[in-house]
Amino acid sequence: MSVKFSIYFFCTSLLVLTISCSRQVQEKKAKLFTPLSSDSTGVNFKNTLIFSQEFNIYTYRNFYNGGGVGLGDVNNDGLIDMYLTANQGPNKLYLNKGNFRFEDITDKAGVSGTKAWSTGVSLADVNGDGWLDIYVCNSGDIKGDDKENELFINNGDLTFTERAKEFGIADKGFTTHAVFFDYDRDNDLDLYILNNSYQSIGSFNLMKNERPKRDQLGGDKLMRNDGDHFTDVSEHAGIFGSIIGFGLGATVGDVNNDGWLDIYVSNDFFERDYLYLNNHNGKFKECLPEQMKSISGASMGADLADINNDGWSDIFVTEMLPERNDRIKTVTTFENWDRYQYGVTNDYYHQFTRNMFQLNNGNDTFSEIGRLIDMEATDWSWGALMFDMDNDGLKDVFVANGIYQDLTNQDYLQYVLNEEVVKSIVTNNQVNYQKLVELIPSNPVPDYAFHNQGNLSFVNKAEEWGLGGPNFSNGSAYGDLDNDGDLDLVISHVNETASVIRNETNVLNPANRYLKFSLQGIGKNSFAFGTKIVIEHNDQLFSIEQIPNRGFESSVDPRPNIGLGKLDTVNRVRIQWPDGRETVLQNVATNQNLILNQNDGVEVIYEKSIPTATMFEKLSETPFNYIHHESEFVDFDRDKLLYHMLSTEGPRISKADVNGDGLEDLYIGGAKDSPGTMYVQTTDGGFKSVSETVFQTDKISEDQANLFFDADNDQDMDLYVCSGSSEFATISNALADRLYINDGEGNFAKSPQVLPTTALENSSTVQAGDYDQDGDLDLFVGIRGQSFLYGLPTNGYILNNNGKGEFSDVTASVAPGLIKVGLITDASWSDIDGDNDLDLLVVGEYMPIKVFINVAGKLTDKTEFSGLKLTNGWWNRIKAADLDQDGDIDFVFANHGHNTRFRASVEKPVTMYVNDFDKNGTREQIICTYNGNASYPMVLRHDLLMQIPSLKKKYLKYENYKDQTIQDIFTEEELKDAVKLEAFDFSTGIMLNDGKGKFTFKSLPVEAQFSTMYAIEVFDFDHDENLDILLGGNLYRVKPEAGRYDASFGVFLKGDGNGEFKAVDSRNSGLSIDGEVRDFTRVNLSGAKLLVVARNNDSVLFYKIR
Fold first, then answer.
1. How do strand 718-724 and strand 702-709 relate by DSSP bridges?
2. Buried b (16+ CB within 10 A) or exposed e, 49-58
3. Over the stretch 182-227, which tens digit does the pLDDT of each residue have?
4. Is residue 382 within a helix (H) or strand (E), and if so which, with residue range?
5. Which whole-number Å values give the CA distances from 597 to 518, 549, 584, 600, in the listed order?
6. Which of 173, 411, 358 is nearest to 942 (CA)?
7. What is the C-alpha separation between 241 and 232, in angstroms, rounded?
8. Over the stretch 748-778, which tens digit does the pLDDT of each residue have?
C-alpha cells in the first residue's frame, strides 16, 4: 500500500497498479509444461498498449493491469475454447479445433467488443439455455467511451448477440472482473460486479472512512437474477459499494462449509479487503476483521481452494513484495509504524506489503501462513490460481506476475522529483507524460509455480517445470485444452503474444490419475455453478468447487478436474449440488470424465459438521476480570533499525497456595504503570484481590517474570518479581527486581534487598533451585538486555540463599560462564545428567541452548558436549518434562517459528551487527539475512541513511545500494569493533535427553511454527497417560516491514509417550485462543481443572480441562 501511495504523492495524484508482458520461454524436453508457439496454435493474440499524451499510466492508474483469459466450450463440442480481452485492441475468441490448434472466429462470432478498454472476462450460461455466454468487463477513462460492460449471448451457432442493457448489467463503473454464482440457491446465476474507484488516490481524506457510503455509479454491485433481467440488490444484501473500493479480485466459494456461497473481495490501495458470509436469506455479513488477523496492503488477484485437503477452502491473495534482494532494495518501500497505526486507527485494518495465504481453521478463523510456506513474495503479482498442476492429489499455486514498467523504482521517483527535471517535464502547466514514461525502467520477472509437497510445504518449480521465463503476466486461466486429464495454462501478457502452455503430466507422470466432471445443472444454472465435489478414500479427502470465474480477470475450464495421485479407484464421490441436493457414487474408477445431472441428486438436510471438542471448553463467565494494559511505549522511536518491540513480553503468571488454605492462588504481572495483581482463591469458587497496596507502590515497574518460592524457609510461598522492559534507562529504579515476603497468611511485604545485584538491569526470568544442596532455594536470574544497548551480551546471575531469604551474587565463583552469556529470556533448573543435583539450562535471543552441568556446586558450560553448540535461536521459553517416559528430563522450547521473513539455518544464519557505526554515541543494530546465496542487510537504503546520514554520499542511488553486503557498507575496522550475533534455527521444538547429558533436538509439527511462541504447558490433557504439549504465542507490535506474528490460536500437540507429537485442530480440541498469549498455568477451582491464559494487553482467559 505505501509503495503505491508514494507514487501518487509524487506527482499530482497519479499512480498505477500495473503489469505487462513479454514472454520468452525455451522449450525443453522433460519439463512439465511446454509453451507452444503461436504458429503452431494459431493464437497470435497480443495485448498491445499504445502511449498517448491523453491516456497513459499517469492519466489512468490501471493502465498496466492487463487483460483476462476466459476458457470454456462455446459450441458444446467437448473442446475448451478461449476468449482473451484486450485493453486497447479487439478482444479475441479462439475456437479449439483439437490437438492444440485454434481458429480465430472473433469477427464471425461478433464478440470483439465495442468499448475502448476491456479488462476481465467471465464465461457463464447467463440465460440458462445450455450454451456458454461471454460477459466482458470494461473500464478505462477514455473520452467518448461509456465503459459499459458487454454481455454476448450465445446463439448456439458460433454467433453471439450483445444484450447487456437488456439484462440490466451494462455497468458503467471501472469494472475489473465479474463472478456469476447462485448466491440465493434458486437455480439461476446471480452476478457480483467488481469495480475500481473513479476517484484519484491522493484526493481522499483517510480520516473520513467512506466505506458505508454508497457510490451508485462506481461501487461493487450484487445483481440478483430475476429471470431475463438482473436487479441491483447490493444495499439490501449488505454489500459495500463505496468510492473507496479499489477491487482487483472477487473470489467466490463456500468458506464456512454451510452449503452457501460466500465472497472474498481483494481491494487495492488503502481500503481493506472484504469477506462476505452468506446469511441464507439473501443477505451477507461482512466479517473479515473477526476472522482474519492480517491482510495484504495492495491486494490484487485472489483464489479460493482447499490447499491441504482438509475439506475447508483456503484463500490466497497476491500483492507486490519482491523476492529478490535487488528488487526489494530498489522498488520497495514499507509503511513505518506511525503510518500503519494511522491506518488501523481509521478502520483500514492490519495491512502489510506481501502476499497473504489464509489457512482456513474451520472455526470461523484463518491463520495467515504466507511466510511459513515461502509464498509471501512473488513481486508485482496479478493472477493467483490454486490447482493440481501435476495430478499428484495436492493443489499447487500458480502466480502470474510482472509490472511492465517499474513505477515504484525509487531512483526513478527521486529523479523525477528533482526540481530541474520537473521544469523540463512541465511547460505552461502541461505535463510531458511521454518523457515521464520513457524514463521508467522495465524489468521482466518470472512467474511462480509452487509445488505442493504436503504438510504445508511448497517449492517454487517454475523454472524446473518450464514456466520460469522472465515476463510481464496478467490474467491467466487453467483448462484441459486437449482432454488428456491434466490442466494446461493460458496466460495473457502486455505487449507480447499470449502464452498457450501444454501440461505434460499424462506423459511424464502417467501414474498420476484424475477425475473430471461434466456437470449438468437444473433451472437456469445449466453448468451447476456452485457445486462442491468431495472425494473420500480411506483417510484421504479431496475437494473442489465449481466456480469458473476466478483468478485475476479470468475464467477457468468449467469442468472440475481433481488430481488423485496414484489411486486407480476411490471409495466415494459426493456431489453437493448448489441447491442442497447430493449425489453419492461408490467405488469409482479414476482417469475418466463423469457426466452427472443435478436432477439425479437426492435432497438432503444440511447439517454443518462440528466435531465435539474433547479437551477444552472456554468459560463464558470467568472467576475474575483481569485485563493487562500494555504501555504505549514505541521501541522503534529509539531503536529505529529493530523490527520487534521488546517491551511487550509480559505478563507472566504464577500459582501457589499463599495463605495455607489448600487452595491455589495466582499472581499476574503488570505492565509499566499497571500493578501486578494477587488473586487468592475463595471457598465459594471465586478469587479476590489481596495485598493491593504493596503492589500498587511498585506499579512504575514492568513485570517480566514472577515466581512463588519459599525464600526464607518458613514454609510459606514468597514472591519474586523480575522488573524489566526496554523502555527504562539504566538509572531507573523501576528496573530493580522485587522480593515480597509472605507472612504466612497471604499478606506480602517488600524486602529491602536490591536484586539481583546493585546494577539496575532488565531482568527477564527467575528460577529457584537448591543447586548447592544446602536445604534452601537459591535463584537464577537472567538479564534480557542492556537498556538502550540492545544486542550487547548480558549476564545470568546465581544468587545464593543464606537460608533466611537473603541473597548474594556468587556468579563469578559458581558459574563464570554466565557472565555476558547473551540476551537471556528463560531458564530451567533440572537434573540433566541423572546425578541427583540440579543443572541449569539457559536460553535467549541469538543464543544456543546453554547447558551448565553441576559438579559439586559449580556450574560448568557443557553446551558443546551436549550437542547444542549450533542451536542459536530466538528462544522465548523453556519447559522441563519427561516427554518420552524414559525416566530423564527432556525439554520443550518456544522459538520464533517459521512464519516469518527471517529465515535461518547453520549455513545461512540471521546475523546482527551491533556498533556505534556513525560514532554519535548510540549503537545501531544491523540485521542481515540471506537472499539466495548472499547475506544482505534487511534495512532499506532510506531507513539506513536516516539512521546513519554519513552513508548518504556513498549511496546516492538505490541502485548503488541494492547488492551491498555488510562488508561492503562498513569498513573492516568498523566491523571488527562490532558485536556479531547469529541465529541458526527458529523452530519451536523439543529436546530429548539420552540420560547422560546429551540431547537431540526435534522440531515440533508445522502448526507449532505458525507464530512466535511464548507460553508452554505440559500435561496429560486427554487422559491417555502420555504427556501432551500446549503452546501459545503471537507478537503484534512488529514493524510493518516484517509484519505481525498473529497466525496462532494456540496449539494442542497430542503426545504418544515416545517423544512424538501430533497437532489436534481446534475443532476437535476446543482450544482457540485469540490474542498475544504470554503464559499458561493450570489451577484447581471447586473441583474443576482450569487452564489459565495470560495475554498481553488483554484479559485473562479460562478454559475448563475436561
1. antiparallel
2. beeeeebbbb
3. 999 999 999 999 999 988 888 888 888 989 989 878 899 999 999 9
4. strand 381-387
5. 9, 21, 12, 6
6. 411
7. 11
8. 999 999 999 999 999 999 999 999 999 999 9
